[in-house]
Design a protein that fits this description.
Order of helices and strands: HHHHEEHHEHH
Number of helices: 8
Number of strands: 3
Helix content: 55-70%
Radius of gyration: 26 Å
Shape: elongated
Strand content: under 5%
Mean pLDDT: 83
Largest sheet: 3 strands, antiparallel
């Protein structure tokens, strides 16, 4: 029941955030002077085709990506923290050799512990899947934010190359795609591409623009964190529980056969 409740709660949060963003868009588009122009760059005169609204759509995608990542973390981290990584065989040996404990108590402990192992394994798998889906969302959101902000600020210099700062108006979508691939490679390979000069493109972030530089740093950090948690979840999950029903009696019989 708690798994279904957590899933419904996460879905409601996701829907609620998107509803709030949709209401923000509607109130801005229906007003005589779009209030989003006060907080976002770009133009808002041409409706949804305006550069400012494309910035807003990219921001919605970024918020959705952050929501999915938080949902994955909310499922994965507690399961990794609470799971004891106890194998059924190890638990069974402790129960078989434990004197003064009735067979009914042994059977109850064994069944309860096995259900906890199954629940933890299921939650880790689901949390890891949601976390990876959030990482995919994050990649698309990073590209969308970079492209939309460059289009909304054509005279800006978010990027630079070996010759110096580059005006946004000269940056193409393909350049930003390769820049995004460079950031992913840097996060996954622990900055090895920067050290050895392995790059997909020629652009880098302009460090004189701290807002976008901090955004790139946050993207790299989150990407590396997702990779680290994915690896840790694969190592922490332990032995995958066998779905075949086992009882203390069967374990004791197997132990007696080995002794014989």
């Amino acid at each position: 029941m708690s798994k279904h409740f957590n899933g419904i709660r996460i879905l409601l949060v996701f829907v609620g955030i998107n509803l709030v963003m949709f209401l923000m868009l509607m109130t801005s588009m229906t007003s005589a002077h779009p209030w989003l122009a006060r907080v976002l760059p770009g133009h808002f005169e041409a409706g949804v085709n305006s550069s400012g609204y494309w910035v807003f759509f990219a921001l919605v995608l970024l918020v959705d990506a952050a929501t999915v990542l938080l949902a994955g973390l909310a499922l994965l981290i507690p399961a990794m923290r609470d799971s004891a990584a106890v194998e059924e065989r190890r638990l069974a040996r402790h129960l078989v050799d434990r004197g003064g404990v009735s067979e009914e108590a042994k059977e109850s402990i064994f069944v309860v512990m096995r259900e906890e192992v199954l629940a933890a394994h299921y939650q880790i798998v689901v949390g890891r899947t949601i976390l990876l889906a959030g990482a995919v969302f994050l990649v698309f959101a990073f590209f969308a934010m970079s492209l939309s902000f460059a289009r909304a600020q054509p005279d800006g210099t978010m990027y630079a190359n070996q010759a110096g700062p580059v005006q946004n108006v000269t940056v193409k979508a393909w350049d930003i795609e390769r820049f995004t691939m460079d950031q992913i490679a840097g996060a996954v390979l622990l900055n090895a591409p920067d050290i050895y000069g392995w790059h997909f493109g020629t652009l880098k972030n302009n460090s004189a623009r701290p807002v976008y530089t901090n955004f790139v740093f946050a993207f790299r950090t989150l990407t590396g964190l997702v990779l680290l948690l994915t690896v840790l979840s694969l190592l922490r999950r332990g032995q995958r529980p066998n779905r075949e029903k086992k009882t203390i009696e069967s374990v004791e019989a197997a132990a007696e056969e080995k002794k014989a």
